[in-house]
Write a structure and sequence with these properties.
- This protein is α/β, with parallel strands linked by helices.
- It folds into two domains: about 1-255, 4-Layer Sandwich (Nitrilase/N-carbamoyl-D-aminoacid amidohydrolase); about 260-455, 3-Layer(aba) Sandwich (Rossmann fold).
- It contains 18 helices and 21 strands.
- The strands form four sheets. Strands 5-4-3-2-1-14-15 form a seven-stranded mixed sheet. It has a seven-stranded mixed sheet with strand order 6-7-8-9-12-13-16, with helices on one face.
- The longest helix is centred in the C-terminal third of the chain and has 22 residues, at about 365-385.
- It is elongated, with a radius of gyration of 26 Å.
- The termini are far apart.
Length: about 525
Amino acid sequence: MYKIKLVQENSKVGDIKGNLDLAKSHIAQAVSEKIDLVVFSEMFLTGYPPEDLLLREDFLSKSEKLALELEELSKEISVIIGCPAKEDGYIFNSALFFQKGKLIEKYKKQILPNYKEFDEKRYFKRGESHKVFEDKGFKFGISICEDIWDKDFAKELFGRDIDLLLNLSASPYTIDKKNLREKMLCEYFAEFKKPIVYVNQVGGQDELVFDGSSLIIDSKDSVRRLKSFEIDETIIEFGKKGISTTLQKEKISNVGDVADIYQALVLGTRDYVIKNNFKGILVGSSGGIDSALTATIASDALGPEKVNTVMMPFKYTADMSIEDAQKLAENLGISHEVIPISDMFLAFKNSLDAKLAPREFDKTEENLQSRCRGVTLMALSNNLGYLVLTTGNKSEAAVGYSTLYGDTAGGFSVLRDVYKTTVYDLANYRNSIGKVIPQRIIDREPSAELSEDQKDSDSLPSYDSLDSIIESYVENDKTKKEIIDCGFNSDDVEKVVDLINFNEYKRRQVPIGIKISSRNFGKDRRYPITNFWKDNI
């Protein structure tokens, strides 16, 4: 019986010594459990993605030097761990295999992803050969993340004399990714009849969230799965009768599970705040659903003692908004302040009146309100050392329904890649666990409250329609005509697409935020700001 321990961990980008110590602790535990082989995820020692840290010679040399400390520990146990390796002037995304006190072999990733959030061809050279590793008579093939997504690669490796395929991954979460992984690996098992072990990273790294969800596949229609969005580990035993483990077989995941989306946002928020050493967070609480959901996610991520909301009313702020912001804070048990902006607004307005062209109340005054709130939050942030979480969503970001240096002022955006319709789904999901968001916040018609009786619907199509148009244009690259042919109002399509194109300059200046979609604004969708392309119907 051959025993393998899978380690699903949250390694930190750049913390090579800390990641090595983490690996050592898992190895020591595995030795006491009489494990034969312990397996870590892709680029574990450096964290993933290290981006341009890989261009630093001191970074590479330290990672390779510290990796060799694992030789001593491998006298009692074999180890496979992800690490960059430099040879002949080239850097390789590698899996290091330690056995009997030595670094026996390096497997070099062959299929380098170079799309969306991935830029691996910027850093790595492609490996060129498949490897079959042997330990105590047990034979296994090694692949790294994208390798396994290539059918030709998989077919060749499964054709080798192996008992098991290991895949070391750092695969970020998106709404459909879990289902795609599991379906693909189950199809491979059905075709090649060889077990697959997939070990994924977990944790938040800037805008990316890694969900873990490591897998053991030894059936064509079910999986054994480690926890999602949590550090986890398991031991599997491989013998003549196949794989045995304490994990139960489960059905393939459901695409777009709202619980998964919520957990991804919580983990991404927690790790961004904690890994960057912020003391706590601030949220401008408007009494609306976006700020309510943001504050709730932050509270779940960090604990109520680290979350602070600020209501900044003006003459257009409804009493219900003030009441609901207070009620939300009470329900969450978080600190809440009310700081009116009337005096601040008048001070700015009086100072500017002599320079502003005389005209009726317009977006100048609307945006000035928002900027007063941004100044207030950033002043509190500087004074207290707290991170300001912006509260805008993907629908608003797409069409520029926001104020630069106003509601976009802050350090991190929890909902940046979340459509408004999904915001409602998430709020209802969270209330199904424990009702903390006042129902009136969910039920009331959305409004920026920057002018008398203002409603989002005054400027935008219904969010159901808006989100579908945005998704069609941004994520699926459909033309205006193709979107209209799907049944959408032509005027709405024309307006929304033109707003998306025009507001690229705004999106470049707002904080990064958690990616959950197949194509987010930022790393995934990179459009020029100065751009004369026009999609004419």
